[in-house]
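Appendix B. Raw example, untouched.
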Amino acid sequence: MQLNQLHRPKNLKRGKQRVGRGQSSGRGKQSGRGGKGQTARAGAKIRPEWRDIIKRLPKRRGFGKNRGRTVVGTRPDALALSVGRLEKLFESGATVSSATLSERGVGGRKFRSVKIVGPSNSLGASGFTKKLTIKGIAVSTSARAAIEKAGGSIM
């Protein structure tokens, strides 16, 4: 068989079918667009419903893609160490550093960053008496005042 011997099928309709042209054509009246309303009109674009739902959600909550880029979830929090605990752990004139704290067993088996915080309620600012030298450890403002009042220093 050759291309010139092919015949077009008899039932094949030629051209595109025009819609909305009478009721007997099969695509008249509503022309396959359903009922009345916005969707039946030309150029109908309905705003996606899920967009409105997303816009109602509060911004930057919880974990996931909205979490701050600077937050590292695997990093353990700093251990808060009160000056009252330092009073019990060290004698006067001692140097407090991360090495001496780990020798005394502060912070557990794994190394954790430590921050010295203000005096506990039982001690008060005047209750801290030991002269300590703090090296390379973060210190809160109230703890700094208590340590310096006792004659200690922070480096």
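End of appendix B.
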